[in-house]
TrEMBL record:
Gene3D superfamilies: Calcium-transporting ATPase, cytoplasmic domain N, Calcium-transporting ATPase, cytoplasmic transduction domain A, HAD superfamily/HAD-like. Its EC number is 7.6.2.1. Its main location: membrane. The chain crosses the membrane at residues 126-143, 149-171, 342-366, 386-411, 952-973, 985-1005, 1035-1059, 1071-1090, 1097-1116, 1122-1139, 1146-1168. The lineage of its organism: Eukaryota, Metazoa, Chordata, Craniata, Vertebrata. Residues 79-155 form the P-type ATPase N-terminal domain. It comes from Sander lucioperca. This is Phospholipid-transporting ATPase. One of its GO terms (biological process) is Golgi organization.
Length: 1257
């Protein structure tokens, strides 16, 4: 009894559970998972004790059912709203206040309303440290004793920053509000709005309606309650999905009276974010019926091709799966962001130190001079220490511009502009699909210029994922080369004429006329059996339209095979729950389908068991050669010749499938059918049980032949990879395909070359074992925490490449379940470490980490890395390893749902809108249609964005240091009294009006060389990878540059003002004139400095520089006028100062001298750098015209082909999608429409529609 109880407890603890509060699935090992497991166990134990006390019998089945019931805690009663408000379904909200745990259907996607916008937005903005800092400063400026600047000098910039950000947030929220208030209604015996719907309501939906909640499909106007939905809003896929109702609800719930009387009780899992799973039961009229995801219509989907559907609301509002998936994603930050934040913190520390030093200076000055000077007596009885304390806060206020308030807003504006440039780039626009490039984020643009590693998917990313049937081998004979009907090889390709076949797809191309002749003659039974298998063994759905047949396939491979069979005379016409109808060379035949054994990525094959019209039972199977050959009968013929053909096909980069069959006796099928039915209703491990049953029947197969499908590389892939490699970007291919396929594609796209030494998983494992053994033998050399220079794994000269499978990856990284369990037990002290030091198993977590570091070091020594047969989780793990141990900037690119993990894990994720839906695009940061656009995204937009941002930040810090530190020098001559050197309004407007526009335009428009030269010289990308243009070295250069300029701006006017006399005989050496001269010198210096930094001049840049200077003088003369002084006498105190000071030629000469001395060292240093130590960019700029002429000549030349077929080694593939097909749907018998009464003659418009068509059925 105890043994059974313990096993069930362990099983409970190992299962993912739905969190009661959030609805998210909790993985084993999670703290919340453990807590919820304990609560489930306490519940079951209570029931167990009760049962034991009553019956003195322990039944493990009862405990299992109790655990199931505890997880199925969500109960929904049809047509009974009061039921869901019973006390048992209420949850505590606050203190004793309770409300129903069932959410209403009203949701709020906007954040603000009229009353909450201002307080909530301000709260969010003041969570930023910089904004909060300036708010504190504003409060300090209100205190009279420490206020060295008027309050408006901080308030105006702060209001502008908050206002710009607030307007942006408001616009975003208005967009969400308008989308939320779209008129969406449907019927529940009466028309009501979505927001009034509740759990348990029975609803009626019409064609093209959006589904308003997560609804259990009850019935529809289609036969067998089939309902077609489009899930583009949910997962981005545009192809139609099939949903179906239970047979019992389909038969009994068709009219409105029956729906109104429906009173079933649904017990299911609690709300969670799993879009791919649903589990529950329906209790109706005393019977229980299982429910799964095929019965659910999820919110956000759209009803298609179904006139009317009826359903029961299961989850509403915030409980729906789409809303549960609306949680926050991981916020990605750039390296420059992190560096910029640290530098702002450094500036803040510097500000405190400077303010403290000057406060101490004031303390000593007041003690020695200030307290003894009668003319400085202010009537306050304050000692020197207290005055020093006040001066500290006074200098914090006076020097606050050292911390740039407008920095973050300016950075956001620049990033927004750079994102728009990516969106507007016509050279990244794919005309065939009308798909432009899209920057889905505005925060990562400059990181595109620092990429070191690219992790790419293969199928659909490097290849087109558009499959074409090219060749085949049947009964040992290969077909597909250009030949005549008699088998004579043709020198010129002549496509087959399909006019003899009224069902043929005219876009299908085939060049071997002998195969067509063989089929039409009917002499070769193997050929006929080959194409009969292709037309019968699949999960393709068919729809009859006016213009022909439309196929909906689970994968492009399967669609290509069925289309090939159709062209060769074996046309798949229709299917029902237990039959398949095909046309065999003008003769229509119907086969009874006894079982459909669907494909999955573990089985790598699919089978169908059919009953022929003559009573024979036959199994047809197609799958990967590796799994098919293991299951062939010893009597099977043509194994060697087919294997040779497979090698040839693989060397030509074709994806292969082996086809075979098996005749089954009636007795054998009956015995197997019983086992199959038992496995179908298994309560636990149903998939494993089915796989075991499938293995029994899929044995002793007879080989027919093999198919070869071409998945072409996308245009420009080899050239793009070559360019990125020249930019020192390493490319890793992470694919689910087999090793031979991946290696083949590696050669075809120039990732692998003949001069590379390729290392496979076995070699890698051996090298890592040697390194680990050395570490154990020399523990003193490899002490924990001690970093030793890593020895090279490949000391021999030459290029290396790594090809490793997912299985070896688990073995190498200790990710197998058994190894993880050993480590966990050792960590808990329940398992001793291995006594044998040569044991290859990890002794502890440190050894596991060192093993991972070794693997990453080895892989990074290689020019190319290909990981094949990897799962989506492994893809993400590989990316995270490189990020963790190499501290490198990574980019992942893919096109399918299996790439989402690595796209989200990498620093930057790029989605390709290909043939596998839009999941990758929806999870990405950038999206476009072709892999070749990655070259332009990185080498042009990424590099430009990085250069612009670095230049902007360097200059921004410089101009603020030069501006603020003048106060520091002035303090030495003002008794450290925290008096400012400029006019108050100049301090207020400096960053807003006088110096912001030129640097903003440099951050938006500057470029060292044009886009064509950026692509021609990939080495220009290297400074970004090295972080050479913005780091702490550049920061301190900007700091010292600012210190130098502030010294010049202060001391040259100071010296000029000593003992001078103006033309009118009056001395101009007053404070106001001095402030005007220093301010004017600063404005000229910073605007001319940015002119020296500008590489790409436009009219806008020129206008910004001259306009900023003009704005300065215009505003200055206005605020120094007598008229404004009369209106605001206490605010504008520099009356007439500008006109009096600037009419003195002597002061103009002082300004010119100051600006000249400030800029002269910069000019000299730039000249020396470009003359003596020129960078790659400087050399290209110097010879720009020459290179542009070469580019024009190169464009006229034709490009040579990048790849030649026919390699030496075996690199085969198998043509299957790595996801389940439609077998479950087909075998259920409710996925098929009624067969048309008459079928006309189809013209040339008969075609196959790709998987991603917007609406196929």
């Amino acid at each position: 009894m105890l043994q059974g109880w313990r096993k069930l407890i362990e099983r409970c603890l190992e299962r993912p559970l739905a969190c009661h509060s959030s609805g998210q699935l909790l993985a084993p090992g999670d703290k919340k998972h453990s807590a919820q497991s304990e609560s489930l166990l306490s519940c079951t134990c209570s029931i167990l004790l009760l049962q034991s006390s009553c019956h003195n019998v322990f039944r493990p089945q009862t405990l299992s059912r109790c655990m199931y019931r505890c997880e199925m805690a969500w109960k929904v009663k049809a047509n009974d709203r009061p039921y869901h408000h019973l006390p048992e379904f209420k949850k505590k909200v606050f203190l004793c206040i309770k409300k129903s745990r069932y959410s209403g259907n009203a949701i709020k996607t906007y954040k603000y309303n009229v009353l909450t916008f201002l307080p909530l937005n301000l709260y969010e903005q003041f969570k930023r440290v910089a904004n909060l800092y300036f708010l504190v400063l504003l409060i300090l400026q209100i205190i009279p004793d420490i206020a060295t600047l008027p309050w408006y000098t901080t308030l105006i910039p702060l209001v502008v920053v908050l206002g710009v950000t607030g307007i942006k947030d408001l616009v975003d929220d208005l967009v969400r509000l308008l989308s939320f208030r779209k008129d969406k209604t449907l019927f529940i015996h009466r028309e009501i709005a979505w927001r009034d719907m509740q759990v348990g309501d029975v609803v009626r939906m019409k064609k093209n309606d959006f589904i308003p909640a997560d609804i259990l499909l009850l019935s529809s106007s289609n036969p067998n309650s089939l309902c077609y939905v489009e899930t583009a809003e949910l997962d981005g896929e545009t192809n139609l999905k099939f949903k179906l109702g239970l047979r019992v609800t389909d038969e009994r719930l068709q009219d409105e009276r029956q729906l109104a009387e429906f009173n079933a009780l649904i017990e299911c899992e609690e709300p969670n974010n799993r879009l791919d799973k649903f589990m529950g039961t329906m209790l109706y009229e005393g019977k229980r019926y299982p429910l799964d995801l095929d019965n659910m219509l999820l919110r956000g989907c759209k009803i298609r091709n179904t006139e009317v559907s009826h359903g029961l609301v299961i989850f509403a509002g915030a409980d729906t799966k789409i809303m549960k998936n609306g949680g926050k994603t991981r916020f990605k930050r750039t390296k420059i962001d992190e560096l910029m934040n640290y530098m702002v913190y450094s500036i803040f520390v510097l500000l405190i130190l400077v303010a403290a030093g000057l406060a101490i200076g004031h303390t000593y000055w007041y003690e020695a001079i200030g307290s003894k000077a009668w003319y400085l007596f202010d009537g306050k009885k304050q000692d020197s220490s207290y005055r020093g304390f006040l001066m500290f806060w006074g200098y914090i206020i006076a020097l606050n511009t050292m911390v740039p308030i407008s920095l973050y807003v300016s950075v956001e504006v620049i990033r927004l502009g750079q994102s728009k440039f990516i969106n507007w780039d016509l050279q990244m626009y794919f005309l065939e699909k009308d798909t432009p490039a899209k920057a889905r984020t505005t925060t990562l643009n400059e990181q595109l210029g620092q990429i070191e590693y690219i992790f790419s998917d293969k199928t659909g990313t490097l290849t087109q994922n558009i499959m074409q049937f090219k060749k085949c081998t049947i009964a040992g004979r290969s077909y597909g080369e250009p030949t005549t009907a008699a088998g004579v090889v043709l020198e010129r390709v002549r496509p087959v004429d399909w006019s003899w076949n009224q069902y043929a797809d005219r876009s299908f191309q085939f060049v071997d006329h002998s195969l067509v002749e063989c089929i039409r003659s009917g002499k070769d039974k193997d050929v006929n059996e080959f194409f009969k298998l292709l037309s019968l063994c699949h999960t393709v759905m068919v729809e009859h339209k006016d213009d022909g047949l439309v196929y909906q396939a689970a994968s492009p491979d399967e669609g290509a095979l069925v289309t090939a069979a159709r062209n060769f005379g074996y046309v798949f016409l229709s299917r029902t729950q237990d039959t398949i109808t095909i046309k065999e060379m003008e003769e229509e035949r119907t086969y009874e389908m006894l079982a459909l054994l669907d494909f999955n990525s573990d089985r790598k094959r699919m089978s169908i068991i059919l009953k022929f019209p003559d009573g024979r039972i036959r199994l047809y199977c197609k799958g990967a050669d590796t799994v098919i050959y293991e299951r062939l009968s010893p009597k099977s013929r043509h194994k060697e010749t087919t294997q040779t053909a497979l090698d040839i096909f693989a060397n030509a980069t074709l994806r292969t499938l082996c086809l075979c069959y098996k005749d089954i006796s009636a007795d054998e099928y009956e015995a197997w059918s019983e086992l199959h039915q038992e496995a179908q209703v298994a309560m636990s491990d149903r998939d494993a049980a089915l796989d075991r049953v499938y293995e029994q029947i899929e044995s002793n197969l007879m080989l027919i032949g093999a198919t070869a499908i071409e998945d072409k590389l996308q245009d420009g892939v080899p050239e793009t990879i070559a360019k990125l490699a020249m930019a020192d970007i390493k490319i890793w291919v992470l694919t689910g395909d087999k090793k031979e396929t991946a290696e083949n594609i590696g050669y075809s796209c120039s990732l692998l070359t003949d001069d590379m030494q390729i290392h496979y998983g076995e070699d890698v494992n051996d090298k890592l074992k040697v390194r680990q053994a050395n570490r154990r033998l020399e523990p003193a050399t490899y002490r924990r925490g001690k970093k030793k220079p890593a020895e090279a794994f490949f000391p021999e000269p030459g290029k290396n490449a790594l090809i490793i499978t997912g299985g070896w990856l688990n073995e190498i990284l200790y990710e197998k379940k058994k190894k993880r369990r050993r480590l966990r037990l050792r960590r808990l002290g329940k398992r001793p470490p291995p006594s044998n030091p040569q044991d290859c198993q990890p002794m502890d977590d440190w050894e596991k980490e060192m093993r991972q570091i070794d693997f990453v070091d080895m892989a990074c020594e290689c020019e190319a890395v290909i990981c094949c047969r990897v799962t989506p989780k492994q893809k993400g793990n590989v990316v995270s390893l490189v990020k963790k141990y190499k501290k490198a900037v990574t980019l992942s690119i893919g096109d399918g749902a299996n790439d989402v993990n690595m796209i989200k894990t990498a620093d930057i994720g790029v989605g390709i809108s290909g043939q596998e839906g839009m999941q990758a695009v929806m999870s990405s940061d950038y999206a476009f249609a072709q892999f070749r656009y990655l070259e332009r995204l990185l080498l042009v937009h990424g590099r430009w964005s990085y250069i612009r941002m670095c230049k902007f930040l360097r200059y921004f810090f410089f101009k603020n240091f030069a501006f603020t530190l003048v106060h520091f020098w002035y303090s030495f001559f003002s008794g450290y009294s925290s008096q400012v050197a400029y006019e108050d309004w100049f301090i207020t407007l400096y960053n807003l009006c006088y110096s912001s526009l030129p640097v903003l335009l440099v951050g938006l428009l500057d470029q060292d060389v044009n886009d064509k030269l950026s692509l021609k010289f990939p080495k220009l990308y290297l400074p970004g990878q090295q972080g050479a243009l913005f780091n702490y070295k550049n920061f301190f250069i900007s700091l010292f540059h600012g210190i130098f300029v502030s010294l010049v701006i202060f001391f040259i006017p100071y010296g000029a003002f000593l003992q001078t006399m103006g033309q009118d005989g009056e001395a101009p050496s007053d404070y106001q004139s001095f402030a005007i001269v220093t301010a004017s010198s600063l404005i000229f210096t910073v605007n001319l400095q940015i002119s020296l930094e500008t590489s790409y001049w436009t009219f806008v840049n020129c206008f910004a520089v001259l306009g900023s200077i003009a704005i300065y003088f215009g505003i200055m003369f206005d605020i120094h006028s007598a008229g404004i002084h009369v209106i605001f006498p206490s605010v504008f105190t520099f009356t007439g100062a500008a006109s009096n000071a600037l009419r003195q030629p002597y002061l103009w000469l002082t300004i010119i001298l100051t600006v000249g001395i400030s800029l002269l060292p910069v000019i000299c240093i730039q000249f020396l750098h470009k003359s003596i130590w020129p960078s790659v960019g400087d050399k290209i700029q110097r010879n720009r015209k020459k290179y542009e002429m070469e580019l024009l000549q190169e464009e006229k030349k034709k490009k040579a082909p990048a790849f030649e077929r026919g390699r030496r080694s075996r690199r085969s593939a198998y043509a299957f999608s790595h996801s389940r097909g439609y077998a479950d749907l087909i075998s259920s018998g409710r996925s098929i429409r009624r067969r048309p009464a008459a079928r006309g003659i189809f013209q040339e418009s008969i075609r196959e529609v790709p998987q991603t068509a917007a609406e196929n059925i």
